[in-house]
Amino acid sequence: xxxxxxxxxxxxxxxxxxxWISKKAAGRDLLPARLLAxxxxxxxxxxxxxxxxxxxxxxxxxxxxKLVRLxxxxxxxxxxxxxMNCHDYKDYGITEKELLALQDGAVFAExxxxxxxxxxxxxxxxxxxxSTVAFPAGFMIxxxxxxxxxxxxxxxxxxxxxxxxxxxxxxxxxxxxGFSDHCNLKLPSK
Length: 190
Hints:
This protein is mostly helical.
């Protein structure tokens, strides 16, 4: 499976450094980094966005933010995002049952292993990532009762970051990179 376009043949030296960094961090050459070389401004800004994403902040631990990234990836049905975010889910204490629950709203409602804060964060990610963005007043009252303003901004920006990548990569037809081959994940097709 190939993307809709090929990377440019000539990539500016300053972008090659960013591509090398993404390869070092991911452990493999990533097609998105090379495709974005067609427009260096977006390559640089996307790289900065990725470097500055929250992975832990106070009570928003690594597990919760990983769950938010996974939930967003499932909601927007981005094969590349699911592939990237799924491959190491067990390292974050996420079980296969929980991963299944993120895919299926009915199972999610019955999942007893998610904390109240996790459930609220996951629902917030779903609401942000839906085709129509709407926030029921009752939900926002619960969210604000359980999260600080800073935490709400981090949850919203983490979800928005995955949405950004999902829309960009889907628009370019970027296929999964093969990170989640071992986790029996059913990735949506392009």
